[in-house]
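yo

u said u wanted the structure for the complex thing, so here. seqs first:
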Amino acid sequence: MSNTIGDFILGSGGIFTISVVIILFVIGVATFMFRRTLLHMLMGVELMLNAVNLNLIYFARLHQNLEGQMLSLMIFVVAACEVAVGIAIIVNLYKRTGTIGVETYSEERG
Amino acid sequence: MENSLILIIVLLPLAGALLNGIVAAANAYRKKEIWGEKISGILAFSTVALSFILSMYAVFVKMAGAEAIACTPYQWMTAGGLNVNITFMIDHLSAVMLLVVTGVSAVIHFYSIGYIHGDKSSVRYFTYLNLFVFAMLLLILGDSMPVMFVGWEGVGLCSYLLIGFWYKEDEKAAAGKKAFIVNRIGDFGFLLGMFLIFANVGSLAIADVNEYFHQHNSMTFFWTNVAAICLFIGATGKSAQIPLYVWLPDAMAGPTPVSALIHAATMVTAGVYMVCRFHGVYLAAPVAMQVVLWVGGLTALFSATIALYQNDIKKVLAYSTVSQLGFMFMAAGAGAFVIAIFHLMTHAFFKACLFLGSGSVIHAMGGEQDIRYMGGLKKFMPATFLTFTLATLAIAGFPPFAGFFSKDEILWNVFASGHGNKIVWLIGMVAALCTAFYMFRLVYLTFFGSFRGSRQQEHHLHESPKTMTVPLMILAALSVVGGWIGIPKLLSFGAIPNYFHDYLEPTLSKYGHVHIDHYSHATEYALMALSVAIAFAGWLLARMLFRELKYRLPDPATYTGISRLLWNKYFIDEIYMKFIVNPIKYLSTNIFLNIADKKIIDGAANGSASGWKWVAVLLSFFQSGNIQAYGFYMLFGATIAFIFALFLF
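structre next:
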């Protein structure tokens, strides 16, 4: 079963996987850049990370070594941490100002 | 290490200086004395005295029969073809210098213990004094030009520190600064000479340099002479010759033992020593030899005439020193290097004695240095009087005192040598006459007649303590007998060998002999008689004028004509001020400070600062505070990087 899906993916010359990766990544970028709430932007970041993960895993499979997979495991861990910290910050910001609209937070203007 | 004895000789004074220096610093820091003048003085004296004893051992026992001994404790630098070792070498020339320097230094250190008594910063004084001896030994024993140069600069530094020893008085601090700056000008010449020699010889070891100029000189006649003259410019700075002599009279602001040690006996003779050390170079450069001869002769006469009218006891001696150094250069310029060193040695004895004697007088007078207010000191300070007179007889050239032999030999060589010159000889004779005159003027005004100072000073008059009179006696004895090791064959009819000549001649004629024109013995005797007659003439003239001073010496302000010119030292200081110092000051303030520094350099610094400020204002537009804009920049940058990676690599 898994072999069939794997064969399909590899057999397609990577077009399928790479397309999925690119679509995911672009969705992530678009989410980050155009959604106006911090929560959505965080989700966009996660999408981008997952696109990268998928990419790594695909190429690890293609080249028949495990380093890519190991790296993607690391990215999972980092992403989890990032989400935890990010959401904590967002919750606190919400408690302070009552909004998580990104345009509210522009104190860093030079 | 072979001959590590030499290393000990050099390092002993340094050890004394370090120890005293640390204590001086600690004393100042803790505001109470760890040890005072007594211990530091004894320490300083004993290191130098030990150095002297070891030097004697090294010269007379270890070196007996040998031409030279050397010791290389350290390889200083190796770069390409350049290889400089720190090598200390004692050959016959440096042996003489070594003994004179350590010996006279030891005596003067001892004298200093009495002289500096009661001064609050005596520990600092002894630190400098010891450091000076160390630097001087580097200069003398260094076997290569850089090591010699380190010593050369070191003695300059110590001279500066000691002239400005009482730095709280502006005038003395300024004198120190003047000495330093004038010396720097000379040092620049020395450096240029060194570079020029290195560029052609490819080695800086003194023996190599002399050998090169003697054997395979591939430099053109012009550049050979330029190199030798550059070195001589260094010598004019250190040894106070025209045109750089102006610092020496001002240097008398320092403590008197310093004047005796540094500005009479040792440091100022470094230039003469250097010329003799590089005699191979000078023998290859006849024009430079002529320059040395003429500068020496003119300086001798010039400063001797100035000394005729000075009223400050130390100033007279200072100009006398300049004049005597001129004599030494005359000898060197005539190719009589042995005689130059001989006069250097005898001069070290009698001039140190004179300076220490004047220190004793000043001590008794409570700081008064003007001979118009002295007089009749003979009966108050018999020991000082006796030694001072003996040294005066020596410098005036009375036989059989030390100065007679050396000065007479100089004049004879200038007269007869192939490099010599009858006109310079005449100049030297006149200078010798002036020397005898001003020295006896000094003696008569100081020690004879009746006391012309205040009642209070008269009450205070006393003979100096033993620590001061014993060195005086030693030096006076040396001024008497010091010349006897170099009695010319002609005078002793070959009965007594000319030890000094025989000792130095092999070392100093390695690179060729100087031709001496042939004259009959009668001529030689006649010249000798003439120089004695001149000494007597100077003495009698001074005796006639100043023996019993019945009149008040005129106020210098009323001088006119030639006496005004001489009293004002030919207005040389004023001329230098007007034509050199002030233009440089003008150039410095108006061009280098106000335009180059304030406008160009500050302008560039401030301009770039405000320029970047405006750039920052423009760039801050991008820092909008909008996180999503930042995301966009990032994406943009990443895309650019991606494109670069894809298409350019």
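The longest strand of chain B covers residues 68-79. Residues 364 and 462 of chain B are 6 Å apart (CA to CA).
cya
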